[in-house]
């Protein structure tokens, strides 16, 4: 067995759960206040600093955050919502869940985020909202999308579930639209084991969100609206607070890792990510392209001890729950950049657990895929 084959494989992602997170969880369990208590309130207050002081409402998942925000904005049957097809299915699932119809728009091939020109072309008299996704931690073109939305009177829901601490020009993601949404799933840039956050600059909208997450009531048995149970536990919030304190250093580490890979991957077999002017990604994923199709790239990287992943091999509009209703309605989506990205992308490891030796191994494995530039 060679030395290289004895080395531990480098995982595509590695959630961090240290003693601080464990101690925080135990502390809350011992307190007896475990649901929607002081830890949740403190987590919301702390997260607000990440989004220019916006109101923050903690919920049970990133999907719940998206769902509640659409409900609070009054999006429902008869409405269309423009979304990317190159995203996780949750982005479009929530549109269907509120009874609205997703309208898929193509992406910018450099950023993998919604192409503003494609968004404008997708608008109809029924369009009520946009959901830009800050994919892979790269900010969507909010400086171009917000004027389109305002011009047409559309709500803007930011899906920032992969983009904690990403910035466009001087504004953090989650602080552009009517509301923003974040996920705290274990593989995200920070986590609370599971959880989500909605951010908004509108205090009335924030209150509606708080009612919705708690069966429509602010005071027990004084129900004001129809609601659900998407509360966050205090155990999760306590873990989230620990991770939130670590996020700035982790984000800078991810940025340094992305810079290292950009400098040391020199093969012409891949196309490296290219952030837009003014964008400071938080690098949830470092995603390269294999022009013409990724073929056996994932397998070859795995053989070299480097984990990787494909996000996302099947565009949402081709998934059964969306394909069949669109076929019945006579809709057909022309999304060439989405289709091309789905066939070509491979995401390489970037996460706080990587050492410089790991980064060197990743770069070497990628360079071995083809000729050097």
Number of domains: 2
Terminal CA distance:
32 Å
Poorly predicted ranges: 1-5
On the 0 to 100 scale, the average pLDDT is 96
- Name the strands of the widest sheet in spatial order: 1-9-8-5-4-2-3
Report the CATH topology name of the largest domain.
Aspartate Aminotransferase, domain 2
Radius of gyration: 21 Å
Please write the string of helix (H) and strand (E) elements: HHHEHEHEHEHEEEEEHHEEHHHEH
Classification by helices and strands: alpha/beta
Name the assembly state.
single chain
CATH architecture descriptor name of the largest domain? 3-Layer(aba) Sandwich
Query: How many strands?
Result: 12
How many strands, which pairing sense, and closed or not: the largest β-sheet?
7 strands, mixed
Which of globular, elongated, flat, extended, rod-shaped describes the shape? globular
Query: Could you name the CATH homologous superfamily of the largest domain?
Result: Type I PLP-dependent aspartate aminotransferase-like (Major domain)
Strand content: 5-15%
Count of helical stretches? 13
Task: Determine and state the CATH class of the largest domain.
Answer: Alpha Beta
Q: Helical percent range?
A: 25-40%
């Amino acid at each position: 067995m060679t030395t290289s084959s004895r080395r531990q494989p480098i995982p595509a992602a590695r959630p961090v759960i240290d003693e601080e997170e464990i101690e925080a969880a135990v502390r809350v369990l011992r307190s007896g206040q475990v649901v929607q208590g002081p830890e949740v309130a403190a987590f919301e207050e702390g997260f607000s600093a990440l989004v220019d002081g916006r109101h923050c409402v903690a919920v049970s998942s990133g999907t719940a955050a998206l769902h509640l925000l659409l409900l609070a904005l009054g999006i429902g049957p008869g409405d269309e919502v423009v979304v990317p097809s190159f995203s996780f299915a949750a982005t479009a699932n929530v549109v269907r869940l509120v009874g609205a119809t997703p309208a898929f728009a193509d992406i910018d091939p450099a950023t993998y985020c919604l192409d503003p020109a494609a968004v404008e072309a997708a608008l109809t008299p029924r369009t009520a909202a946009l959901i830009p996704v800050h994919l892979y931690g790269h900010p969507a073109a909010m400086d171009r999308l917000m004027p389109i939305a305002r011009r047409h009177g559309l709500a803007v829901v930011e899906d920032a579930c992969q983009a904690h601490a990403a910035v466009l020009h001087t504004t953090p993601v989650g602080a552009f639209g009517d509301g923003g949404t974040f996920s705290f799933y274990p593989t995200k840039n920070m986590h609370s084991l599971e959880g989500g956050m909605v951010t908004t600059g509108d205090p009335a909208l924030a209150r509606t969100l708080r009612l919705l997450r708690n069966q429509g009531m602010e005071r027990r048995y004084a129900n004001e609206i129809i609601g659900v149970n998407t509360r966050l536990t205090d155990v999760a919030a306590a873990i989230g607070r620990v991770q939130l304190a670590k996020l700035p250093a982790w984000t800078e580490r991810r940025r340094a890792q992305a810079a290292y890979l950009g400098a040391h991957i020199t093969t012409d077999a891949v196309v490296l990510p290219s952030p837009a002017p003014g964008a400071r990604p938080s690098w949830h994923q470092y995603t390269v392209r294999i022009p013409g199709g990724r073929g056996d790239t994932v397998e070859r990287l795995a053989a070299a001890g480097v984990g990787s992943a494909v996000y996302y091999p099947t565009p949402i509009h081709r998934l059964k729950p969306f394909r069949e209703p669109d076929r019945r309605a006579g809709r057909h989506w022309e999304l060439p950049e989405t289709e091309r990205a789905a066939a070509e992308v491979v995401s390489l490891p970037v996460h706080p657990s990587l050492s410089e030796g790991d980064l060197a191994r990743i770069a070497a494995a990628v360079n071995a895929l083809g000729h050097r530039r």
